[in-house]
Structure formats: structure tokens, C-alpha cells
Amino acid sequence: MSIQENIQNLHEQLPENVTLIAVSKTKPVEALKEAYQAGQRHFGENKIQEMSDKYAVLPKDILWHMIGHVQTNKVKYMAEFVHLIHGVDSLRLLQEINKQAARYNRVIHCLLQKDIADEETKFGLNADEITAILTHQIQALPNVKVVGLMGMATFTDDQAQIRQEFATLKATFNQMQIIHPDLQILSMGMSGDYQIAIEEGSTMVRIGSAIFGERNYNPA
Ligand SMILES: *Cc1c(COP(=O)(O)O)cnc(C)c1O
Fold first, then answer.
1. What are the helix and strand counts (H, E) for the chain?
2. Which atom number of ligand 1 is nearest to the Cα of residue 191?
């Protein structure tokens, strides 16, 4: 199926309150153009350099989501245009985003990444760290706005475990919303697990291979 058909099929499946992020990492600009022509405007990338290169040549009404792990020293390269940073996993990073956003007179929207997976390799904050940021640390950072949480489930075939991890994140989200009503976005779900994520309360799914096909990280 074509990129356009994949996007249309997804839009038919997704509830109205769920935003589709087309994860275009490693894919050529032509593939993004095809998605754009199908009406897609939210795109997700996991490398700042690649996102900037694509931003430079594609239409300016695209909303760019940084979904990968962000190195503090690279925030400056996306501060001018990034729409939403999903993977904020430290106060230090939030402080740097605030500083770079101020240079452009912007308020950059961010999601705090919570570590929900049963894997050492996943990044993220724990519930206490999220609480500390939302209750007081955020007050010193006028150029960032924390608008939600993001999480990645363990890479496993165990559907019950994935569901449990998403449910845990949703419970944290509900709790944090009480102290920080700006939280409106719950970014969880990828090609393999977005249906479960939606059932557990996701409002934003990040889908790559189910739109663009498998990724080839080592093109010949
Ligand atoms: C690559 C990536 C995705 C998309 O993965 P697919 O399985 O191709 O849908 C979603 N979220 C993050 C953080 C990613 O790095």
C-alpha cells in the first residue's frame, strides 16, 4: 500500500481526539512530501540534524516533533522551529530548552518522558522527578510549557505487559493533571502497539513503519 493509503487507513481508525505523528526518521524527503500531499502535517524525527535538513526544504506549515533522545548541546539547532519536544528526560534539558527558546522569543511546548519500560535502555523520569518539575521547578522556566507526558513500552510480544505499562503512564498523567492542568497530551503508541495505547488513553500516536514501511538504517 502507498504512503497515502496508509495515512488514510490510520485516520479512519484513530479516534478524533488522537493526533497522528508520522515518524519519518531515515526516510527521504520524497516520502515526506507524499505524506504531506495526503494531508499529513505532524511529522516526528529523532535526530536534530536530520529534522533541520528536512525542515529547510519542506513546506513551512509542517509541525515538527522531536521524538528522540535530545542532547543538551543540540537544542539550539531546533529552537527556532520545533513544535513539540517529546523526550524531555531531565531538568537540565528543560533548562536548556528554556534558554534557547528565550533567544527566539518563543515558548517551546514539551512533554516529560516517563520511564515505564522494563528495559535499561529507555530514558525517562520517575514520578517523583516529574512531580518536582511540575510543582516548582517549572516556575523558573517561562519559555517552556509542559503540555503532557510521553512514554515507550517495553519491546516485547507480551501484550498484557505493554497494556500494564501504558496504564501506569495514564495513571501518572491523571494524577499530574490535578497539580498541572496544562497537561493535555499523552504521547504513547507506535506502529506495533498503538491500538493498545489508544485503549489505555493515548492522545498522540507516533507511527513510522506502518506509514512509510520498514526502516533501513544501513543503506548500501
Ligand atoms: C522510531 C520511533 C517511533 C516509530 O516507530 P514505528 O515502530 O516505526 O512506528 C515512535 N516513537 C519513537 C520515540 C521512535 O523513536
1. 8, 8
2. 9
Whether 171 maps to a domain, the answer reads yes
Q: Which residues line ligand 1 (CB under 6 A)?
A: 23, 25, 46, 67-68, 152, 190-192, 206-210
Q: Pull the grid cell for residue 110.
A: 514539551
- Domain residues for the domain of 185 are 3-212
**Nearest residue (CA) to ligand 1, atom 7:** 191
Asked whether residue 217 is domain-assigned, the answer is: no
- What's the CA angle centered on 155, arms 203 and 220, to 5 degrees? 100
In a domain, 112, yes or no: yes
Which of 3, 206, 212 most suits a substitution to test ligand 1, by most atoms within 8 Å of the C-beta?
206
Residue 220 lies in a domain: no
Give the three cell numbers for residue 137: 521547578
CATH of the domain at 42: 3.20.20.10
The number of distinct structural domains making up the chain is 1
Q: What is the distance in A from the centroid of ligand 1 to the CA of 207?
A: 6
Ligand 1 centre to CA of 190 (Å) is 6
* Whole-structure pTM value: 0.96
Can you point out the beta strands (E) in 61-202? Answer: 63-66, 84-88, 108-113, 144-150, 185-187
From first to last of the 220 residues of the chain, give the pLDDT tens digit.
899 999 999 999 999 999 999 999 999 999 999 999 999 999 999 999 999 999 999 999 999 999 999 999 999 999 999 999 999 999 999 999 999 999 999 999 999 999 998 877 678 999 999 999 999 999 999 999 999 999 999 999 999 999 999 999 999 999 999 999 999 999 999 999 999 999 999 999 999 999 999 998 765 4
